Amino acid sequence: MSAKKNILWYQNAVFYELYVRAFRDSNGDGHGDLVGVIEKLDYLKELGVDCIWLLPLYPSPLKDDGYDISDYYGIHSDYGTVEDFDRLITEAHKRGLRVITDLVVNHTSDQHPWFVESRASRQSPKRDWYVWSDTDQLYQDARIIFLDTEDSNWAYDEKTQQYYWHRFYSSQPDLNYDNPEVAQAMLGVMRYWLDKGIDGFRVDAVPYLFERDGTDCENLPETHAYVKEMRRFVEANWPEAIMLAEANQWPEDVRAYFGDGDEFHMAFHFPVMPRIFISLHLENAQVIRDVMARTPAIPSGCQWCTFLRNHDELTLEMVTPEEREMMWSVYAPDDRMRLNLGIRRRLAPLLGNDLRKIVLANNIMFSLQGAPVLYYGDEIGMGDNIDLPDRNGVRTPMQWREGANVGFSEAPADKLYAPVIDSPEYGHKRVNVAEQRVNAGSLFNRMKELIALRKRYQSFFSGSQEFIEVAHPEVLAVVHCCDKGELAIFHNLSGSDVSFSLHHPPMQGAALTEVSCKDGRLSNPGQPTSAQVELDPYGSLWLLRDNSL
Ligand code: NOJ
User: Fold this and answer.
1) Ligand 1 centroid to 489 CA: how many Å?
2) Is 204 a catalytic residue?
3) Ligand 1 site: residues with CB under 6 angstroms?
4) Which residues, in sequence order, are bridge partners of residue 104?
C-alpha cells in the first residue's frame, strides 16, 4: 500500500513521536537505531498511527540530544547510516506510514563546521552566518528559555573577543537569518531530506529566527517572511510534504504561523495541553473551553496538532503564574520533577497511574479538532526516572517485554544509553507491550480502540467544533458537525458518576447512537426523546446523530 494518496493526509492523521535512541537497538550497542525502528514498524501499524515524527537523527555532540547539529547531511553513527534511513522511508511507506523528521533551523552545534569557521576570526567568510556583537547588551528584551542552566542569551568568545547569540544552550549558537546565504543553506538542507522521500518536517524553535533590538525577538515579521519562503519552496517541489511548527506561543501568535495558508500546514497547540491537566485537577472544564474560545479559526488546509506529553518538560510557559504554581504543586511536588518553566515527568506518573484518567486525558485530546500526537511509550503508560538529568528521565528505553533490557537491546545492561525503568510500579514486569497486547483492558488496547474510533469518524473533525455547556461544570462537551451529521463527545472530569439530559437542539428529538460506550452510556439509546447521558467516573461518551439514517 502506498502512503501517498492525498495532499491533506495530515489533517486527521494520528502522529507518533519517536525517539530513535530509545526505541529498539538492532545491533546490540545499547543505542536504539534506524534498523530497530524498521523492526517495529508493524507494531506502529498495529497501534494504528499514520505518521511517525523522528527526533533529530543528525551527527551531533549530543549536548542537547541531537538538537545541536554538527552536520545537516548525515545520520548520527549511533543511529546507523543514510542507507538505513532510506530503507526506513521505503519500509514505512510500504506499510502506509508517513515519516516526518525534525529540522532544527534556529541554531547549530558549536561544533558545526559553519560555526567553527565563523568563530575562527572576525574576518572569516562565515563570521556573519551567526549573530556576533561587541556587547552583550543587545536584545535585552528576549527571555531566557533554558532558565535552569543559562543566565544570558550571549556567550563570550575569548579568541575573537565578541559575544555570540544563543536562545538555548550556549553550545547552540543561533544562525543569522539576516544573511541570505544562511537562508539559502537551510533550503538546501530541506531539499536533501525531502528528495529522500520524507513526508515533511517538524520545524524546531520557529519563533526565534530573527533578532531586533527593542523587541522580544519572537515572531518577528522577518521570521514570517522566511517561513513563507520555505513553504513556497516545499510546495513547489514536494506538494504532499508538510511543515509543522514548534512555536510555544499563545494561540493568536501561533495563528500567524498559518499565514493565509501560505506558512505552516500544522502547528502544535501548546496552551491547551496544560489546561487538560488543570481541568482534571480542578474537575472543571472551563479552562479548556476558555482556551479554545481564545483559539482563532485557521485557514483551510491548516491544522493544529494536539499533544499531552513530548520529549521535553511539560511546558508551563503558556499559563498564568497562578496556574503554573498550581501545576507545580499538584503535578511536581518534588523539586526534582521541575525543569525550567515546566515538569519533567511522563503522562502515567503525572496522572497517578490511574488508567481511567490516562484514557480520559487521551480521549479529550482525541475529541478536539487537530491531529493528535502521541509520545512513544505513553501508549503503554511508561514511567519516568527523575534521577536522570535534564529531560533524559522521559527518554528511557521502550518497554517491549518483561525481562532483561525489556526487549529493547541485547547489550549488557551497563552499556544501555540509559537505564530501563525498574520501579515496582512502572518497571518491565508491570508495563510492557507484550503483556498489554494480549490484555483486552490494557492501556495499549484502549489506545488502539481510541485511534480506530477517531479514524472511523474523522470526517466530523474537519467540520465545525462547538463547546457546549451542560449543567455540570465537571463535564466537557464538544459537538462536531459535518454534512454527515453530528458527533457529540462528553467527558466526566470527576471521580463521581454524572447523569444529565442533553439539551442541544440539533441533537434533540433525534435518534442517537453510542459509538463508544466504555465508560458512559445513553440510558435511552435509539429513542428520539431528550437524551439522558450517564458518565462513569472519568468516563467519556461519543454520541452520533447520523444524517444518513
Ligand atoms: C525544542 C526541542 O523540543 C527541545 O528538545 C530542544 O532542546 C530545543 N528546541 C532547542 O533545539
Assistant:
1) 34
2) yes
3) 64, 67, 104, 168, 204-205, 246, 311-312
4) 204
For residue 339, the 8-state DSSP code is E
What does the alpha-carbon distance between residue 184 and residue 252 come to, in Å, rounded to a whole number? 29
Active site residue 42: no
**Ligand 1: nearest atom to the Cα of 246:** 1
Taking CA atoms only, the protein residue closest to ligand 1 atom 6 is 67
162-165/132-133 β-pairing: antiparallel
Q: Provide the edge-to-edge strand list for the sheet that holds 464-468.
A: 464-468, 475-482, 485-492, 540-546, 513-516
**In this structure, which amino acid lies at residue 366?**
F
Amino acid (one-letter) located at 110: D
| 518 contact partners, CB below 8 Å, separation of at least 6 | 446, 449, 539, 540
How much is the pTM?
0.97
In a structure prediction context, what are the per-residue pLDDT tens digits for the chain, which is 549 residues long?
444 457 889 999 999 999 999 999 999 999 999 999 999 999 999 999 999 999 999 999 999 999 999 999 999 999 999 999 999 999 999 999 999 999 999 999 999 999 999 999 999 999 999 999 999 999 999 999 999 999 999 999 999 999 999 999 999 999 999 999 999 999 999 999 999 999 999 999 999 999 999 999 999 999 999 999 999 999 999 999 999 999 999 999 999 999 999 999 999 999 999 999 999 999 999 999 999 999 999 999 999 999 999 999 999 999 999 999 999 999 999 999 999 999 999 999 999 999 999 999 999 999 999 999 999 999 999 999 999 999 999 999 999 999 989 999 999 999 999 999 999 999 999 999 999 999 999 999 999 999 999 999 999 998 899 999 899 999 999 999 999 999 999 999 999 999 999 888 888 778 888 898 667 777 766 555 567 899 999 999 999 998 876
